[in-house]
Amino acid sequence: MGDAEPRTAGGRVTVKEVADYAGVSAMTVSRTLSGGKNVRADVQRRVMDAVSALGYHRNENARSMRPGHTSGLIGVAITNLGNPYYGGFALGVEEVAATYGRRILLGNTGEVLARETQLISDFVGRQVEGLIVVPTGGAGEHLQPRALGHIPLVLAARSIPGVSADTVLLDDTSGAYEGTKRILQAGHRRVAFLGNSVSVSTATRRFEGFCQALAEFGLAPDPDLVLRGQQDVPAARRAMEQILQHSAPPTAVFSANNRNTIGALEAISAARDAGSVTTPPTLIAFDDVELANQMNVPILTISHDPKALGAEAARMLFSRLDGDFTSSEARIFNLAVSVGNIRS
Amino acid sequence: MGDAEPRTAGGRVTVKEVADYAGVSAMTVSRTLSGGKNVRADVQRRVMDAVSALGYHRNENARSMRPGHTSGLIGVAITNLGNPYYGGFALGVEEVAATYGRRILLGNTGEVLARETQLISDFVGRQVEGLIVVPTGGAGEHLQPRALGHIPLVLAARSIPGVSADTVLLDDTSGAYEGTKRILQAGHRRVAFLGNSVSVSTATRRFEGFCQALAEFGLAPDPDLVLRGQQDVPAARRAMEQILQHSAPPTAVFSANNRNTIGALEAISAARDAGSVTTPPTLIAFDDVELANQMNVPILTISHDPKALGAEAARMLFSRLDGDFTSSEARIFNLAVSVGNIRS
DNA sequence: CTGTTAGCGCTTTCAG
DNA sequence: CTGAAAGCGCTAACAG
Q1: What does the domain layout of chain B look like in residue ranges?
Q2: Looking at the DSSP assignment, which residues form a beta bridge with residue B153?
Q3: CA atoms of A275 and A45, how far apart (whole Å)
Q4: Other Cβ atoms within 10 Å of B52 Cβ, number
């Protein structure tokens, strides 16, 4: 009896079935479920019993189709969920979205533009109320308001030339500048640079900050010591090995992201074990990396909180959705980064 | 002209509007969009022009409401996206789901049972075709088939007593057993244990494997050296500090997950810097941790691929959805773990 | 307090 | 080859 199984083969329970079971009309069920205003208490109880007996769940999709209603969905496209940084980012988005009663539709682009385009188009078709995108960096036609059905878009971590949308960025340039300056003030004069893909705006901005600080000390980057384009740990490790083998190795190395930092630390560690390096260079590491401070390699970390970045992206989006911010002008939010002290 | 803005305030473009614009009926638009069978070529072109002029996106929610159609959504509930392990897991799920043309609805439970319950109920309301859940570990009434509207469920990483569902697990017990055995064979006899929450089945299974190996060598775990319940890095670090200060410290320490491994390594590193420890204990670390092998602490890693676990969970789910597997019996998949060699 | 009607956007019949 | 009607599950608006 309590185990009633009245669903029509494969289908799910509907209001109508609940109504029949409780001996009322669909409207009474609907009303009961949305607070019970204008429904007699005993009828409400009868309805709730039916709901629980049949295992009824209101169909939110049908519900959001009615005029005035929205889907309660936010589309989030991320380049690489496998990078711990973006896991933290997604968490920040999710937590704020939950606060606003919204759910996350998540997609991973794998840094592939076509996939990003397809994903976003699908999200729009699924009636998301807004989009948060960490763009791969290619041309942004698919990010133009028309392609998005004019739903609000927030870009995160990277900006795209020609796309005018609210954007949350790290204070890349000034973080890199401050970190590099700190190392120059400590007396270093020969500083290498390890960076990820040049097409990623973040990488460019960090490189700029790096160069600015050098310039202020009357220095220019040594082309031999600038290695860019390493997108994963093995590539970063090879790049660092190359730097360590330089005839006049640098005394410090700027690493533009967490992948490069890990590769660099692996290379240093291996070289030290092999005896080919005794005094490792000082690292200026953009992004936090677990255990990096325990490696007995002098390191200056430029820290920032991925979760905070995600949370800010979500807040920016909701300020549009709730009509708190209506200007058609795009906002840019720069999340502060903090330059620590040289450790170890 | 190309910039037509015909949407009724706030609303989105509908088939009807596209039809009017192209001077055809809604049906012709619909047919064109689903392949163009039985539509004259020139009419198709006219429709496509209208679609692109108006920026039309087919409403997938309305579409999936029609008989026979499904939502194309998979609900994924994870305990902590901030843990890199679960980022990799989510990636594995996403990639396989994309292969099957499905999208991910993602929620983070934060190890809070109430949140998990609410999330899952919402997912069901949103017509997900299936669920993949890393359960927090509490009672599983909300995971019973009736509560789920009988949609397929796959549990991941942890199992729940009383819930019969397809499950993907790591080979926790045997991995822990093999790792511990290896360390005992290397001559260690005093081995500590650092674990996460006891209510998590994974933690229990790893502890069992650990004990099994000890027993085989005629040993029993020393209660003083078994510290469980550390859920984050700071707690793990404190636990390891306590172990290091023991009057008769262990020569090896089993760490049951990545949080405990990082905490332990931090504690060892600090103690070594402070001079209070000269010969660090050997670590048996369940879960891979970036940089752990470079810490100059002898370490045996019990490795496994979070992405592979996620992918397997998704495959198991789709085998149900596609009707390839219809038995009501729950399957358990154990993902192999690999025990490496003692490093450093 | 409760039920009937109508329609959200779409597509499967069934008629032309 | 094309269109009109009908209905997926739900709930405002309007009776009663």
Answers
A1: 15-54, 73-170+307-335, 172-303
A2: B131
A3: 78
A4: 13
Superfamily of domain B172-303: Response regulator (3.40.50.2300)
Name residue, tokens 């790792």.
Answer: B179
- Chain B residues 57-76 within an 8 A CB cutoff of chain A: 57-62, 64-65, 71, 76
CB A263 within 8 Å of CB A239: yes
Structure tokens that stand for B23 in this block: 């001077």
Residues near strand C (C-beta below 7 A) are A 24-28, 31, 38-40, 43, 62, 65-67; B 11-12, 14-16, 26-27, 30-31, 33-34, 58-59, 62-63, 65-68
Strands (E), chain A: 73-78, 103-108, 130-133, 153-156, 166-170, 191-194, 226-227, 252-255, 282-286, 299-303, 332-335, 338-339
pLDDT at residue B147, as a whole number = 87
Strands A153-156 and A252-255 turn out to be: unpaired
CB-based burial label for B97 (10 Å; 0-12, 13-18, 19+): buried
What's the burial of B202, exposed, middle or buried (CB within 10 Å: 0-12/13-18/19+)? buried
d(CA B213, CA B60): 54
Spell out residues with C-beta < 7 A from strand D. A 11-12, 14-16, 26-27, 29-30, 33-34, 58-59, 62-63, 65-66, 68; B 24-28, 31, 38-40, 43, 62, 65-67
- Interior CA angle at B214 toward B212 and B219, to 5°? 130
| Interhelix angle B258-273/B233-244, nearest 10 degrees | 50
Nearest-neighbour CA in chain A from B39: distance (Å): 23
d(Cα A115, Cα A118) in Å, to the nearest integer?
Answer: 5
Here the tokens at position A114 are: 């076509």
Claim: this prediction has a pTM higher than 0.70: yes
Task: Assess A269–B contact: CB distance below 8 Å, yes or no.
Answer: yes
CA atoms within 13 A on the CB side of B189: 5
The CATH number of domain A73-170+307-335, selected from 3.40.50.2300, 3.60.60.10, 3.30.365.10, 3.40.309.10: 3.40.50.2300
d(CA A214, CA A191): 9
**Are residues B115 and B85 in contact, defined by beta-carbon separation less than 8 angstroms?**
no
User: Over the stretch B145-160, which tens digit does the pLDDT of each residue have?
Assistant: 888 988 999 999 988 9
User: Would you say residue A2 has pLDDT above 60?
Assistant: no
Q: Check residues A5 and B196 and name the one with the higher pLDDT.
A: B196
Least confident of A60-69, A138-147, B2-11: B2-11
